[in-house]
C-alpha cells in the first residue's frame, strides 16, 4: 500500500505491506534510526515518535494509519531549538547514562513542554510514565524537563 505523510516536516511517500509497523518503516525503509527497537510490545517507550504532535509508540501503530499525518522523530526534534534545549538539559542533569531510552524521553518531553508551560513534578512523572529507563532513576529526568519548563517562563 502507498502511504504518504510528513516526516520531520518533509513529505514522504512509501510503499508498505498493510501489516508493517511504523517503527520498521522508519528504521528499515527510511533509514530513520532515532526511534529505538526495545520491547516491541508498547511497554518501554524507546520507539516513541510524535504523531500530529502527540507521543505514540511506533511499534504499536501501523504505517498505513499515519497516512496524511505528520510524524516527528528525534531527528527532527533535535534540530529544533526546544529539542536542543531539552537534550542539553538531559545531559547537564545526568539524565543520560547508556542513552538507549533518551530519544524516546526527549520526544515525549518535547510534546509536554510544547503544550504546557507550568507543571508539577507529579504531572511530569505522569506524562513520562510510558517511557522506561533502567539506568538513571527518574529524578534526574524529571529535573531535566523541569529546568526547560522553568526557563520558558523567564
Ligand atoms: S519498542 Fe515500542 S514501546 Fe518498547
Ligand atoms: S539511560 Fe539507560 S535506559 Fe535510560
Automatic annotation (TrEMBL):
Q: Which UniProt keywords apply?
A: 2Fe-2S, Iron, Iron-sulfur, Metal-binding, Oxidoreductase
What PROSITE patterns is this protein classified in?
2FE2S_FER_1, 2FE2S_FER_2
- The membrane-spanning stretches of this chain are none
Residues in domain 2Fe-2S ferredoxin-type? Answer: 1-77
What InterPro entries is this protein classified in? Answer: 2Fe-2S-bd (IPR002888), 2Fe-2S-bd_dom_sf (IPR036884), 2Fe-2S_ferredoxin-like_sf (IPR036010), 2Fe-2S_ferredoxin-type (IPR001041), 2Fe2S_fd_BS (IPR006058), Beta-grasp_dom_sf (IPR012675), Diverse_Oxidoreductases (IPR051452)
Q: Is Protein biosynthesis among this UniProt entry's keywords?
A: no
GO-annotated molecular function: 2 iron, 2 sulfur cluster binding; metal ion binding; oxidoreductase activity
Xref: Gene3D superfamilies: 3.10.20.30, [2Fe-2S]-binding domain (1.10.150.120)
Q: What is this protein called?
A: (2Fe-2S)-binding protein
Q: Which species is listed as the source?
A: Fervidicoccus fontis
Traced from the root, the source organism's taxonomic lineage reads: Archaea, Thermoproteota, Thermoprotei, Fervidicoccales, Fervidicoccaceae
